[in-house]
Amino acid sequence: MEVPADPRARRLFGGSARALGDLAAGPFRADRDRIVGSPFFARLNGVTQVISPGGSGLLVHNRLTHSLKVAQVARAVAERLTADPAHRDLLEKLGGCDPDVVEAAALAHDLGHPPFGHLGERVLDRLARQRLGLADGFEGNAQSYRIVTSTEIRGAATTGLDLTAAVRAAMLKYPWTRLDHPDPHPRHLDPAPRGAAAPPDDPESGSVKFGAYRTELDDLRQAREPFAGRIPDWQQTPEASVMDTADDIAYAIHDVEDFYRVGVLQQGAVAAELMAWQREYGHLRSITASALEAAGRRPGAAIERLRRQLHRKDAWIADDDAFAAAVEHVREELVEGLLALPFDGSIEAEQYVARFSARWSTRFVEAITVTPEPDVRSGYVQLDRAQWHEVQVLKFVHHRFVLARPDLALHQRGQARLLGTLVEALWEWLLDPEEESRLPRRLHDLVELAEAELHPRTPDRIGRARGRAIVDFVAQLTDGQAVAMLDALSGRSGALWTDAFVL
């Protein structure tokens, strides 16, 4: 197969491996098929989005259903923008916006998420850096990119899914490494792009969010080559910007759905917060930051802190009138609408949820525009000011009334301890010379892959390879597999032969 003339369609390995539909569907649609056919995509059915499906007793979103909905929204946005001549011409100048590309990138964007959602991501990053000595640590987006370029095996001669440059570039929400690419690194910009800043308590650790580890840097550069000279090195491609915006939309809407279904999002608490801020806005706006912090959980104080945070971080779009209108719209739609009747599992209740989601999805998709000169903290594709504020308020609702709950914290502390114990147990297993022949084959292969990626003169090359292999291995487990593996390693499982499914 000849390498396509279009540089956006260039593959890492020249397209030598072919997937179902490669011949007829075109290179970008073929990428979609490759992603959907990957076992890493299938495993997302067992990975937590926010609420563990096993703990809820109800059908709630997992990483797989979330990815499908992000893909649905992303394709709708791309089709709408490319149907408008004004947007289409600008997008072409910026490198293009193909609906198949944004759909494929949306399907792939969460492949690297580890067990237990964002909690697992934070725990694995801490363990990778502090326990395993990996400067790059762990990041879900970078792990997704590693999977499609390095650790997913596709055919005898191909490592990774051999995706086109356009789709790999569209996966890069954060098109930089943790510490040193591009140069100057975007964390040094003022303000820094969203996600690029280093944590205040550890400025030497690099960006909080990043799109690739150093081991995949050559792949990142090749993916971005078709966009050189069109967009800054640290800026998302238009297709990545569509995917990122779609992810925000799906997160804002569908997580609220889940919290309502499970019954943890209560009308009274949400109403008290929003209405107290509306009633006392003048007073809350006038008090000092220390006085606001001292107000603690007093209704209205948390959302006033959100208003101030938006001005501090996103002054390019933050607007008090738009914020107040967003609070009112969310109050009407959520407090007086969705939350007015408790979810009882009936067909009527399901229809009510579906109408709520459809209204918000349509509202957001129709409010997306393209700008030729985005702010550093935005992308070329962005929501209008009013809808951008509504997304922030919806996200605030589930951060405030679900993620901050002590009972969820209790559950997550147990999951964090489980991951720490699992990593430690695997490390000890790798260090046992008598057990080398009995290591899980996948873990053994990942050690060899990681060792081959490192320069022969890398300090503690074997140790670093083992550390990266453990991170890769744990990150590819589902929630249930992580629990089952620790049970087996701790001697608590009596199911000898059926435990092999996690190996």
Automatic annotation (TrEMBL):
Residues 63-252 form the HD domain. Residues 178-191 have a biased composition (Basic and acidic residues). PROSITE patterns: HD. GO terms for molecular function: dGTPase activity. GO terms for biological process: dGTP catabolic process. It comes from the Bacteria. CDD domains: HDc (cd00077). Keywords: Hydrolase. Residues 177-209 are annotated as: Disordered. This is dGTPase.
